[in-house]
Write a structure and sequence with these properties.
The chain is of the alpha/beta class. The protein has a domain of 76 residues. The protein has seven helices and five strands. It has a three-stranded parallel beta sheet. A two-stranded antiparallel sheet has the order 1-2. Helix 1 packs across helix 4 and helix 4 crosses helix 5. The chain is globular. Keywords: ATP-binding, Helicase, Hydrolase, Nucleotide-binding. One of its GO terms (molecular function) is helicase activity. This is DEAD/DEAH box helicase family protein. Pfam families: ResIII (PF04851). It comes from Rhizobium hidalgonense.
């Protein structure tokens, strides 16, 4: 009987192949539908004050400890965003909002609707990185309905990080670039507010409601 041939294991295993993502036209259209709402926006960054609470007692109790924070600055007017919205709706065969007053009444609550299994998570992550590239927005909060979807979002970040890093020439790292909200770590929330680097916070709605209540 012939003995099975054996070969020594290589000293190093071959590197894992990089995942390739095929760009789908409908996904790019979905990204553009949101990004184009801010057409005319310039690359901006705005400072704001974070009030940490009262400091001291007596006459000093009214003093507030302020710390510099950095947020997304929208420099175009509501009217310009409304005009952009109508253009986006018309090119996607959606009946546009009839009056600017209706838009102002409901505020800037926009929805890009996609079917299940069409790459919604990929689309909103790509939207984030496109907003950074085009307008300089750096602060984002992703709110998901459950812990399971939160974990799925984290997994998508992991498998798309190299793809988006290469495409948008940006560093994407867990905990420093994106992180899960934890009310027991207030220092991380302060870092989110004060950093001038890309910050993406992921939170499930139950965790948010628990802290509010």
């Amino acid at each position: 009987m012939n003995k099975p041939m054996t070969q020594p294991m290589p000293e190093t295993m071959p590197e894992t192949m990089k995942l390739q993502f095929e760009e789908q036209a409908y996904q790019l259209d979905a990204v553009a539908a949101f990004v184009d709402l801010f057409e005319g926006q310039t690359l901006e960054q705005i400072d704001f004050a974070i009030e940490a609470g009262a400091v001291g007692t007596g006459q000093q109790a009214s003093l507030l400890q302020n710390e510099l924070g950095l947020g997304n600055a929208i420099t175009i007017s509501d009217a310009a965003i409304y005009d952009n919205l109508v253009k986006v709706q018309e090119r996607n065969d959606i009946d546009p909002i009839a009056k600017e007053a209706d838009f102002t009444k409901h505020g800037m609550n926009f929805s890009v609707e996609m079917e299940t299994g069409t790459g919604k998570t990929y689309v909103y992550l790509r939207t984030i990185f496109t907003l950074i590239q085009k307008y300089g927005f750096k602060k984002f909060i992703i709110v998901v309905p459950s812990v399971a979807i939160r974990e799925g979002t984290l997994k998508t970040f992991e498998i798309t990080a190299a793809h988006f890093s290469e495409k948008f020439n940006i560093s994407i790292k867990k905990d420093s670039t994106y992180f899960v909200y934890n009310s027991q770590k207030p220092s991380r929330l302060r870092d989110f507010a004060t950093s001038n680097q890309l910050q993406i916070m992921i939170i499930n709605i139950d965790a948010f409601n628990k802290d509010v209540n």
